[in-house]
Amino acid sequence: MAERNYTRQLATIISIDAVGFSRLMGIDDELAVAAFEERRDIIAGSCGAFGGRTFGDAGDSIMAEFGNPIEALRAAFDFQARIVALNAAVAEDMRMPFRAGINTGDVIVREGRLYGDDVNIAARLQEFAPHDGVAISATTWHHVRDKTAAVFTDLGEFSLKNIALPVHVLIAGRGGNGSAAAVSFASIPIAPGHYGPVAKGPPAIAVLPFQGNGSEPDVGYMADGIAEDIIYGLSNTRWLSVIAKGSSFQFRDDSLGTKLIGNALGARYIVSGTLARSDRQIRLNASLTDTSNGRLVWSQRFDRDLVDIFSLRDQIGSEIVSILDKEVDRAEQARTFQVPWESLETWQLVRRGRWHMNRRTRRDTEIALDFFDKGYRDDPNSSAVLNELAWWYFWRAWLRFGDSDDLEKVETLARKALLMDSLDARPHAYLGAADIMRGLPALAAEHLAEAIHINPSFAFARSAMGSAHLLLGDAADAIPFFLDTERLSPFDLYRFHNLGELAAAYCFVEDWPAAIATAERSLNLSPSYFYARFLKIGALMRSGRRDEAARELDIFMTRHPDFSEQRIRWIPFVDPSRNNFLIANFDRAKSAA
């Protein structure tokens, strides 16, 4: 047997890596090497001062060995603080931060070098660390957790390359008056890792604090305020789980990346953004990321004049909430196609049914009902299912010009949904919409006001409130609700209807150019929408544009050969003269033909 020329021992290993070394080499290789060597000497000095030794330098990486995990963590905090101070003295684009990973375990020692899985784990852990930060394994954490002033952020379990078993990863930050990078990560509750059971129910979304760019003192406050408004607004959508501000706002430094932050918070989706101010304007860049695959789902820039800060916060926040609600819904609809029918949970059945509803074909509408019915059989008390069924029957009632049986089902389902969740805005909105179709706009307005109070970002409720005002004869009061809907949901599938209602409101206030332009926008979205073309024809005639009205009338009669003015008289205006007004405008075009 060959003589054994190695030993085994318990050790704590720090793997240390220079961040951005290759980039700096491309800018100035001599300066980069000098900077690295200066920082390497700092690292070696700190490790030696705390009883450790460095070994195995390779390129821009350094390894260090300690007999005591507590001293290893103290050494890491020491050299990180010193490197942060050194970097602060050079130009930002020439700084060289380091990150470190610490693991405690069994190693093989041979000729002064260390080998084994626990050495490799330390090397993998440093990839999780933020710039100027430290990542540690749970084995190290168990040794240091009660013996240092450090604070820890739990990222959960991960499968590391070439490591057989999952490793529990935490971020260690210096407590007290430590460096900014260290204290930006506070302790948060342990979130399920990648190897925990798959969470049941709808996905969770986390809104990180928006970053304020610029020297103006109020930018940071406004950035936080907008993020808080979004958290509050998303929580009112009811179907989506929202991570509390107290947890998500711990991640002001996003250098961990959305995937790791999402894992730490147990969130599938992350909302992040930046806010900048210039003179009397602000620019907000916001984005939505799917943490399961790192894919950017949505991003948008918002430029606004800086007027009243609070009203501006409310406007931008509600607009983003409405967009995010639909973007997450769309992403989840697509995700359900990766799950076999028999394995779909109730909330996934709802998402799949919504996907078919959005296609707006007769066959897809029937398929959607199958999904909703299956969800109802699986969970008859699910407010999500009850709301989708209420919407399904409302949509069919609208197509059938107010079928009373369908409207009865809407009311029954919506009221049961309210019993399940009294703070859900959707049942109130559907009750209001049903009352509109029954010719009870005043009662509808009460339901809709409650829906808007619960969820100010609910675009459908605002559009329906506009319709209620329109039916009551308050066209001028209706217009702001329709415009709010346009702002809150600029890509809504049913936007053509909201624009048609807005065109009608412009007709009643006799703003004919606006009525024509708005009706045209509605028709661009849905060329077969009879009401928008009907309104456009009347508005063209009232504007004296007879030739254009005649051409539109030809298109109208070709598309709707069975049209009768009874379809307009069916619209439940409180004052029948409103119906007569619209019909008279249209009849002018027919008489001139």
Automatic annotation (TrEMBL):
InterPro entries: A/G_cyclase, Adenylyl/Guanylyl_Cyclase_3/4, Nucleotide_cyclase, TPR-like_helical_dom_sf. SUPFAM superfamilies: Nucleotide cyclase, TolB, N-terminal domain, TPR-like. CDD domains: CHD (cd07302). It comes from the Bacteria. It holds the Pfam family Guanylate_cyc. GO terms for molecular function: adenylate cyclase activity. It comes from Mesorhizobium hawassense. GO terms for biological process: cAMP biosynthetic process; intracellular signal transduction. PROSITE patterns: GUANYLATE_CYCLASE_2. This is Adenylate/guanylate cyclase domain-containing protein. Residues 12-126 form the Guanylate cyclase domain.
